[in-house]
Design goal:
Length: 181
Amino acid sequence: MRDAKTLTRPTFTVPAGACDSHVHVFEANDRYPSVATPHYTLPDGSLGELRRMTEALSLQRFIIVQPSYYGTDNSCMLDALAAAGAAARGVVMVEPNSSEQKLIDLHARGVRALRLDLFLRSSWPTADIIATGLSQQKEDGNEAGDSRIDGATHQKKCSVSIKKIKQPKGEAIGLAEAECA
């Protein structure tokens, strides 16, 4: 991460509550080990450096996204999220067989989204990625296309539909649309 002193400060008034929607936090490898074969070497990017950067840019909030460097071990991101408090929310990577209770627990800790590591699935056809998600929902006792999101402060029933869209080269991509009541 660039030293905050080298950043160009905004020349305009940054709106109250301004948010960086995608940041990563990396800490010491002896405390937070990488996956067996990371796609890159451990970069600089501690929570302290992130705080100095957001202060320099007049940002009040940020979203910490789990880097592929740590795989589905979200410890570093969750520790950073706890230390950052109300200024941050998180995006985690989880195993496909994660329980609904695990997702509820992550939500209570400030997590609001899941990240799908497409590096690991780069050779998969998009339809297979979509099918994997739908079959997991069936295994969890939900009908394909339905997902329930429960949180400590709210409960919503969401209906998720996935539309396949043909691309010029013939591969279909999935577009997920959610409607929550």
